[in-house]
Amino acid sequence: MLDRSSKFPTATTDDSLTEMLRGLRLDGVDYGRCELAAPWGIRFLAQEAARFHFICGTCWLRAPDGEWIELKRGDAVLLPRGIEHALASAPGEPLSPLETYSVREVCHCVYDVWGGGRGETTILFCGSLKFNLDAMHPLLRLMPDVMRIDALTASEPAIPHLLEAMAREVGASRVGSGGVLARLADVLAALIIRSWVEHGCGDTSGWMAAVRHPAIGRVIAAIHLDPEKNWTVDTLARVMGASRSGFAQQFHSVVGETPARYLTQVRMHQARQWLSRDRMRISIVARRLGYDSEAAFSRAFKRVIGAPPSHYRGAEEPGIGIRSEK
Q1: Is the pLDDT at 166 greater than 70, yes or no?
Q2: Using CA atoms, how far apart are residues 98 and 112, in angstroms rounded to an integer?
Q3: Using an 8 Å Cβ cutoff, are 18 and 9 in contact?
Q4: Which of 45-59, 96-110, 180-194 has the lowest mean pLDDT?
Q5: DSSP 98
Q6: Which of 3, 81, 105, 277 has its CB surrounded by the most CB atoms within 10 Å?
């Protein structure tokens, strides 16, 4: 559900990143402080929730393509779609699931993790982040598989204080620590995304290009803030301040798909949330999104989501856990 209560600028401003992040919130978080002595290696299997890692020390990341990348103190990694990856004290170390290490649940969804050998110690702050949008929502799908920030603390001086506060919550075992950590993780995720955008990590296509393109960014922000609106290519072109044909061509060039297709995807993922989380009737969702009939809505929904609306009506959203692997 999009947060309509926040007092942010309207989508006509140039701060499209602020507007796009309005629709991206955390519904849950598992958080862990890992103290690991070399040699060690952890395999993180694919999961629906996003993952983040903040490095205090040095370690290596095995990216989805199999390449090993050195991470140093202050680096941070966000994997928006929770794809499979690994962290290790050195490339090629044997990898084991996180649950094979010593794990102590400090409080609900908050863990202390330790283990490894007798060598140099590295501390990791790791978390599973369950966004309010599913992993294949267009906003998350346009993000890269791995968002790596080098020396995040240099560009975001608030990060050390934020992580210190998170570490205190882990160690204090106080009532409500899980909720406090979820809010701190929400801020941390936003800071990682902002730093990644500002400092040019990644390529110049997809989500990065959309955010950096002021006019296209305004259009995407407008769609996400009000997916129920009767948007047409003409009205979206007016948001951008361009002709219909010029807008359609530029949108496709930057985002990689037509405005109509992107809008339909956003609407169907919003519909999925209304059905599964808010328990709305299919007829109400169809009418709310401007469809003349439930049948027409169902066909569009199945084409985008891959299953009929009835499959999600009343379905529970899966939970996440730092020790749960898919």
Answers
A1: yes
A2: 11
A3: yes
A4: 180-194
A5: G
A6: 81
